[in-house]
Amino acid sequence: MDTRIKNAALMVTVSMLSIACSMKDGASQVQAPKAQIGSFGLDLTTGDPSVKPGDDFFVYANGKWLSTFEIPPDKSSYGAFVKLADDTEVQVREIIEAAAAMQAPAGSVEQKVGDYYASFMDEAAIEAAGLDPLKPGLGRILNARDKKEIAALFGAPGVKTLFGVGVVPDLKQPDRYSLVVVQSGLGLPNRDYYLKDDEKLKDVREKYVAYIEQMLRLGEIEAPAKKAKAIMALETALAEVHWPIERTRDAEANYNPHTKAELIAYAPGFDWQTFFDALEIPTRERFVVRQTTAIRDAARLFRDTPLETLRAYLAFHYLSDHASYLPKRFDDAQFAFYGKVLRGQEVQRDRWKRAVSHTDNGVGELVGRMYVEKHFPPESKAKMEALVANLRAALEDRLEQLEWLSDDTRKRALEKLATFVPKIGYPDKWKDYSDLEVRRDDLIGNVTRAQVWDWRRRLARLDEPVDRDEWFMNPQRVNAYYNPLNNEIVFPAAILQPPFFDPHADDAVNYGAIGAVIGHEIGHGFDDQGRKFSADGSLDDWWTEADATAFTERTKSLIEQYSEFEALPGLKVNGAITIGENIGDLGGLNMALHAYRLSLNGEEAPVIDGLTGEQRFFLAWAQVWRAKYRDEALRMLVLSDPHSPPYFRVNGAVRNMDEWYEAFGVQPTDELYLPPENRVRIW
Q: How many domains does the chain divide into?
């Protein structure tokens, strides 16, 4: 999450405490709106006061909820993020179903949104159609005569490929787009699921082979058992050459420009020209190859794999990837593996919930336009802009005071902060869906056309300047992000609701919640990878050697801390994978607390319900990360996600902040205690 401002004196001070207004002539007072949670924005009934904050701050703040809350059967995890996403989903459903119920003019926003949703909800039509909508594509796969035709299929919409291709701003020239080639092709979350010597993952692998066989059998493919084993062998070999997550995070290692001729020479064994023809980029001559050796070795693997196995591989994934649009027997089989086995989810989500997600995926910004009109008041955007300004001022203040940073690097860091661009709520310019045909009676056709529409939209920009107005999340998404290439932080409208943001909550709560989220995203501009990008968004080493060494030493200590956290018996957090997010959490929390203190203008924070301002600030942080996970989902998070589990995001960040020790009287005998010299201080 990211932003910019120049001078702390320009900081906008926001006060969001409720103010009572009196009416004239002795009339009764009218109370301003109150916070939606508790009396001032915190839920003080969910903690466990029997636990010392210094022993386990997460449980101190959330223990009663943790011990009593049951994860809903259709969820693999639950917490503040998921609850808000559920609430937003209900809001979006009302909007979409209203559109689906009206006789909207053809081509209108309401027609496209309503019909996209209705096509997924028409279960009777889906059952009646059976496999027919998929047969043309499946026939092309099963009847492929040679590997040239397989290479062409790799570029077809909705077909699995060993090589992903995307259109993104160039890391070294962020004002222009480049075509990138990336590793792809696995059906399990990442390479560890194929290669790690772990009994749980061995069980997953066995069940994955059974699922492959089941899907081939449902698709009426011959010799499903034999082909399932061959597919698993192919994917395992592919996993062996894939780069691990730690390496895929390295921005410099993943920037490898090649001409087409150089790519063909470097990675022989695959018909690249036929692949590019199918992707409608036949004459493009420049590509950025991300995971070089993985691309090279996957091409070799393609060359050495029998045609029959490649056909079976594509057929299985074509069926699996479209299973939710097929009759119930396909949908149930896919859920039994990807929902139950991989995530521990007990029951499938309601059809309407999946239809909302399906519509978001296909025509998300059309839905977003209707959502913000109804659920995002202009005053929320204005107050968020003020909060962002405060966080930027706080980081500027901190950068000016950092002792370990040299003047040269400090100057460049301040320049980068000064060019941060905040985007709040929704895009200033919406995507144009006028060329996308949506039909109420053609579910799979809608999905395919949306994929083709989006790809062609991206291709059309290749020779154009980078569109800096584009958003990569829909407004109805409960999330936020930092984009280093545009040096921007983006906060969709949906996250700007309680418990993250409430204009009527206590300031300390808002700063500890959405303030720390803002700071987190700003911090990504200065994490282990974001720091490599300069103010204009280009990949550029602007650090002095001494400063880079000092930064690396500090991050190394943070990696070591998080690598000691055990999520499940025998399964520890990978501090190297999660370092970027952990830097974001720690830096964001420091920035937010600094901004909160600045907002007090030298005054003492009020004590509310016996809690000081800083106690309320840290409790708000702990409560927005309140969450429970099923073991399967937690394992997937630890093995494949750059974020630490929420439990460790809370405890891991606060134990590195002196202010937390002071706020809660944490002592050397407490379990989370770190000696001052071991506390990591970066931003």
A: 1
